[in-house]
Amino acid sequence: xxxxxxxxxxxxxxxxxxxxxxxxxxxxxxxxxxxxxxxxxxxxxxxxxxxxxxxxxxxxxxxxxxxxxxxxxxxxxxxxxxxxxxxxxxxxxxxxxxxxxxxxxxxxxxxxxxxxxxxxxxxxxxxxxxxxxxxxxxxxxxxxxxxxxxxxxxxxxxxxxxxxxxxxxxxxxxxxxxxxxxxxxxxxxxxxxxxxxxxxxxxxxxxxxxxxxxxxxxxxxxxxxxxxxxxxxxxxxxxxxxxxxxxxxxxxxxxxxxxxxxxxxxxxxxxxxxxxxxxxxxxxxxxxxxxxxxxxxxxxxxxxxxxxxxxxxxxxxxxxxxxxxxxxxxxxxxxxxxxxxxxxxxxxxxxxxxxxxxxxxxxxxxxxxxxxxxxxxxxxxxxxxxxxxxxxxxxxxxxxxxxxxxxxxxxxxxxxxxxxxxxxxxxxxxxxxxxxxxxxxxxxxxxxxxxxxxxxxxxxxxxxxxxxxxxxxxxxxxxxxxxxxxxxxxxxxxxxxxxxxxxxxxxxxxxxxxxxxxxxxxxxxxxxxxxxxxxxxxxxxxxxxxxxxxxxxxxxxxxxxxxxxxxxxxxxxxxxxxxxxxxxxxxxxxxxxxxxxxxxxxxxxxxxxxxxxxxxxxxxxxxxxxxxxxxxxxxxxxxxxxxxxxxxxxxxxxxxxxxxxxxxxxxxxxxxxxxxxxxxxxxxxxxxxxxxxx
Length: 694
What we know:
Mean pLDDT: 81
Distance between the termini: 93 Å
Strand content: 5-15%
Low-confidence stretches: 1-24, 597-604
C-alpha cells in the first residue's frame, strides 16, 4: 500500500499541487464518519451472524440429543422384542424370564453336575430359589437384591473356575452372571439377634421364602436383608429414620413401595425412587410376556414421539443453517466494503501528509543543527565517561578495602564465638562434675548404710548357723562329703516314706531281713546282667566304629576314582574339569570348561558350554560312575543327539572299549544316529529298527 501511495504522489503534476492541497483537506474530515457508519453496519452483521451460528449449534445439539434418544429407544425396543421371542420359544420354562442364555447355562450346569465335575451342585440364578410372601413387595425386593438375582453360588474356587468355563461357552464375549465362591453350610445363619424389628412393619428377609440355606446365607452375607426394613409409606419411613430415638434396633436401611431408600440417623439421608413391577420373583412366563408386550407398546409410542421431535428439530436445523449462511454472506460483503473504505481513507491521509511535508532547505537546516547538537552531546558524553571510569576505580578500591575489613571482622567474630563456646563447654563440664560429685557422695552414704545393715544381718546368720551346727553335732559326726540341701532333704523324705511303709506293712523284723536278702540277691543278678550287656554294647560299638571307618575309606576311594576317571575322559578331547563331592551335605558339583581353539576363548563355565560339549561331559560323568559300580546291565539312550562327529566318534570308541573290557556285563546303547561306523563282531551286536511309517 505504501509503494502504491508513493507512486501516485509522484504522478501528481506540480501545477496541480495547490488544487490537491485544497481538495484533500476538505475530503479528510468526512472519512471518519463514513468509516464509523461502516463499522456500525459490520458490528450489526457480525452480531447477527454470531446469533445465527449460536442458534444453529443449539439446534444441532438438540437434534443430536433427539437422534441419540430415538436410537436408544430403537435399541430398547429391539431388546424387548428379542426378549419376547425368547420367552415364546421357551414356552413355560420358569428360567425364560432370565434370558435364553440362562436356561441353556442351567442345563449345561446340570449335565456337569451329573458327570461329577462339581464338588457340590451350584445354586443359581439366585432369584429362581426365592418366593415372595406378599406380591406387592416383589419389585421392591428385586430393587434391594439388584443384580444378585442372576448370580450363582459355588462351593469352592475350583467349582468357580469350572462354572466360568461353562459360562464362556454359553455367553461368549457377552456379559456373564456374577459368581460367589463360599463353603456351603447345611444350616442358615441364626440372625435373630441381629434382625431389624418394628411393630407393624416387615423385615426384608422375612418377606422372602428362601428354603435353601445356601441362598439364605448368601442374602445375609452379601445383601444384608436382615437389617433392611420394608415400610409402605414415605411418612412412616421418615418417622422411623430421621431421629436416633425412633430408629429401630439393627436397622441399616428403610425401603418404601416406591423404592425410596432412607438411611437412619445419625447419618440420616434419603434417595428417591420409582415403583417397579416384578420381573423375576414368582413371575410366570405368561405374566412376563404380558409385561414385555406392554413395555413394547410403551417403547413404540415413545419412539414415535422421539422420531417426530427429531424430524421437527431437523427441519429447524436446516432453517438455522440457511440463516447462518445468509448472515455469513452479508458479513463477508460488509467486510469487503469496510476494507475498500479503509483503503480509501489511508490513501487520502497519505496524500495529505505528503502535501503538508516541509521543504528540502528547511530539512537541511534542521539536519545541520541536529548534527551540531549531536557533536556537543558526544563531547560531554566522553568527558562524563572519563569521570565515570575514575569514580568506578575509586569505588572498586573502596569496595576492596571494605571486603578486607569485613573478612577481618568475620575472623575476629568467629574466634570470639569459638572462645565463647569453649567457655560454655568448660562451665557445663564444671556443673556436670559438681552434680556427679554430689550424686557420688549421696550414693556413698547409701552404700555405707547398706553395708552396715548387711554386716548386722551377716552376724545374725553366722550365729544362727553356728547354733544349728552345734545341734547337728550332738546328733552325729560331721559328714566330710557335703551334699546339696535339696538332695539331703529329698533322701530324708524317701527314708521317711520307707519307714512309714514298713510300719504300715505290719512285718516282723525277721520277715524284713528275709525280704532284704531276697532283694540283695536280685540286685546282684541284675548288676551282673547289666555288666554283661555293657560288654556286649562295647563290642557292638567297636564293630560299628570299624564298619564306619571302612565305609568312609570306601567312600573316599570311590569319590577319588570317579574324579580321576571323569578328568581322564575329559582330557581325551582337551577339556578340563573337576568334580566336587561333599558327603556331609550330600552334594555333587561338576565344573567343566571347553578347550581353547585358535583365535577363540574357551567356555569359562559349565553353563556356557555348547550342546555337544555338554553331552560329552555327561557321558564322561556316567562312564566314571560305571567304573565304580558293578551291575549286570547298563543302558544309555540317545547320548549322541547333540554331539558333533568328532565327539560322537570318540564317545563311541570309549563306550565300546569299556564294554569289551567288561565282558561279564551287558551294555545296551540306543541312538537315533547313523551307526555304520561300528563294526559288528562276536561280542558286538547291532540291531537296526525299521524306518517309521510315513
